[in-house]
């Protein structure tokens, strides 16, 4: 039997790619690092079943031609058209005829004094934890950082019993208003955005406002905020703070895919610079749900040899791309945020390396060698995007394993698991 | 309502709703630090999605498991060093 199309990532783009490829007659393996499909935006809520668009795509990906492997992280690419994957139970190699990379995005965190205190979390981070049952009812939360995700997170926390004290959005109101006007060309989006705001209880949405420090003894107790010339402390149990999203590029880089301005560079069929490897969704550039779905569908059809069906989705993709570009401009990070870390503020949380030690170096390579910055278990996934913003350092290459792997996996001594 | 799952965190019994992640169980056990950093600071989850490795704990004797990515099961033994 021919090798399957392997899709890495079961968020919207990966689900759409897997569904369209399977509907086109291909055999598909859908891998995801999480215990459940849905990615971050459709992350399973342990207290309720998925609805609407999420339910439709999750059902489509339940197609019997799709083998779903959850809790699987790709750690290496040991041979051409082969991935090494590791699950809680062991490791195995998997061969592919075509590969669709839908590895999604993560939050960008920026270091400021106190950000390593327990209960300072990502915005999407606290929401993800809450969805898996993390107790937040009755807790007071400051939501901060940048982007439309803050609104969605505040709404989710509010409806689940948290007391959201305020949303601190670093972008200026004028910038967001311009974005808001641009939404008129995308009526569906406008309603969605307004509906989101309307359903929020009166939570102050403070634009041009950002956190400068977190304080507490052993855990977070209050956060210092700045807005214009005004600074004040806000008491809270949690700070949910993320400064936009960045694509997960580790696996594409390992496979030597070329990067463009925003993420993995792709052609009109979502094919990367490596023949037979496609990329879809946030990994090609942050663009939101509609763009992820359109790119995923196109990649799925293209990988399964249905270019005409892929072409029928080009106009939907183009429209979603215009929306994504407007979004990026509206929530661009302000220069003042580069002054957030003090010299003694830790930037690399794995190896506890402070900003003052890192910024003396001219780039990643030297900093890694001299300080071990970015060389801990997260392998620069947190400090990388921070230093990209703070110091303009770009991650150029990735070496396997792309996730910390067990020695047995690396040595190839894991029990082989026969594929069904 | 989902049924509850019971496990231990540092020897103490904790019940969580079925489907909850190990990170939830550690939080419900009242522990603030999930691990100690290389310089001894207490650390707790940051990203909630398997990226940052701040929430790592020992599960059934296996070290460095990301607690936000593993679903709780009955009888699971979780240990933190935070």
Structure description:
The complex is a heterodimer of chains A (420) and B (82). Helices cover 31% and strands 22% of the residues of chain A. Chain A is α/β, with parallel strands linked by helices. Chain A has a 5-stranded parallel sheet, covered by helices on one side. A 5-stranded parallel sheet of chain A has the order 9-16-10-11-12, with helices on one face. Chain A starts with a strand and ends in a 9-residue tail after the last helix. The model of chain A is unreliable at 413-420 (pLDDT under 50). Chain B is mainly β. Chain B has a single domain, classed as Roll (Ubiquitin-like (UB roll)), CATH 3.10.20.30. In chain B, 9% of the residues lie in helices and 34% in strands. Chain B has one helix at residues 22-28; strands at 4-9, 12-17, 35-36, 42-43, 56-59, 62-66, 77-79. The radius of gyration of chain B is 12 Å and the shape is globular. The relative contact order of chain B is 0.29. Chains A and B meet through β9 and α3 of A and α1 and β4 of B.
Secondary structure topology:
The complex is a heterodimer of chains A (420) and B (82).
Chain A: E1 5-8, H1 12-23, E2 28-31, H2 52-60, E3 66-69, E4 73-79, E5 82-87, E6 90-95, E7 98-101, E8 105-107, E9 120-121, H3 123-131, E10 140-146, H4 149-159, E11 163-169, H5 173-182, H6 187-199, E12 205-207, E13 209-215, E14 222-227, E15 230-235, E16 238-243, E17 245-247, H7 250-254, E18 277-279, H8 289-303, H9 307-311, H10 314-330, E19 346-348, E20 353-354, H11 355-358, H12 364-371, H13 383-391, H14 407-411
Parallel strand pairs in A: 1-2, 1-7, 2-3, 7-18, 9-16, 10-11, 10-16, 11-12
Antiparallel strand pairs in A: 4-5, 5-6, 8-17, 13-14, 14-15, 19-20
Helix pairs in contact in A: 1-2, 1-8, 3-4, 5-10, 8-10
Chain B: E1 4-9, E2 12-17, H1 22-28, E3 35-36, E4 42-43, E5 56-59, E6 62-66, E7 77-79
Parallel strand pairs in B: 1-7
Antiparallel strand pairs in B: 1-2, 3-4, 5-6, 5-7
């Amino acid at each position: 039997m021919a090798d399957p199309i392997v899709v890495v990532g079961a968020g919207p783009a990966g689900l759409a790619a897997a569904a369209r490829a399977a509907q086109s007659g291909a055999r598909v393996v859908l891998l995801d690092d999480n215990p459940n499909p849905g990615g971050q935006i459709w992350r399973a809520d342990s207290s309720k079943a998925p609805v609407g668009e999420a339910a439709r795509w999750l059902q489509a990906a339940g197609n019997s031609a799709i083998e779903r492997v959850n809790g699987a992280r790709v750690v290496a690419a040991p041979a051409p058209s082969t991935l090494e994957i590791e699950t809680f139970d062991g490791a195995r190699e998997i061969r592919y005829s075509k590969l669709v990379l839908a590895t999604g995005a993560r939050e960008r965190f920026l270091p400021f004094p106190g950000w390593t205190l327990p209960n300072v979390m990502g915005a999407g981070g606290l929401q993800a934890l809450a969805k898996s049952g993390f107790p937040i009812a009755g807790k007071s939360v400051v939501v901060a950082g940048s982007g439309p995700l803050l609104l969605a997170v505040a709404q989710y926390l509010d409806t689940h019993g948290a007391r959201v004290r305020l949303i601190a959005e670093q972008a200026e109101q004028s910038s967001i208003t311009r974005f808001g006007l641009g939404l008129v060309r995308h009526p569906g989006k406008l309603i969605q955005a307004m509906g989101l705001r309307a359903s929020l209880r009166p939570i102050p949405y403070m634009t041009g406002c950002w956190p400068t420090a977190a304080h507490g003894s052993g855990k977070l107790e209050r956060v210092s905020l700045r807005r214009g010339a005004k600074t004040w402390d806000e008491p809270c149990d949690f700070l949910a703070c993320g400064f936009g999203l960045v694509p997960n590029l580790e696996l594409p880089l390992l496979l030597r895919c070329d990067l463009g301005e925003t993420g993995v560079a792709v052609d009109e069929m979502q094919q990367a610079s490596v023949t037979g490897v496609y990329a879809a969704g946030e990994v090609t550039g942050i663009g939101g749900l509609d763009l992820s779905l359109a790119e995923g569908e196109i990649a799925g059809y293209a990988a399964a040899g249905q270019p005409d069906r892929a072409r029928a989705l080009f106009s939907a993709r183009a429209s979603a791309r215009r929306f994504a570009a407007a979004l990026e401009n509206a929530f661009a990070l302000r220069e003042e945020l580069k002054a957030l870390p003090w010299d003694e503020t830790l930037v690399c949380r794995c190896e506890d390396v402070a900003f003052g030690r890192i910024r003396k170096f001219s780039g990643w390579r030297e900093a890694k060698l001299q300080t071990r910055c970015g060389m801990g278990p997260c392998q620069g996934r947190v400090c990388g995007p921070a230093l990209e913003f703070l110091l303009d350092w770009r991650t150029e290459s990735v070496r396997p394993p792309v996730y910390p792997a067990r020695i047995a996996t690396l040595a190839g001594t894991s029990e082989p698991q026969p594929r069904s | 309502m989902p049924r509850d799952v019971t496990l231990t965190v540092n020897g103490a019994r904790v019940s969580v709703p079925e489907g909850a992640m190990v990170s939830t169980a550690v939080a419900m056990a009242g522990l603030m630090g999930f691990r100690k950093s290389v310089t001894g600071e207490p650390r707790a989850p940051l990203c909630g999605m398997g990226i940052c490795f701040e929430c790592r704990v020992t599960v059934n004797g296996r070290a460095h498991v990301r607690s936000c990515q593993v679903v709780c099961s009955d009888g699971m033994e979780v240990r933190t060093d935070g």
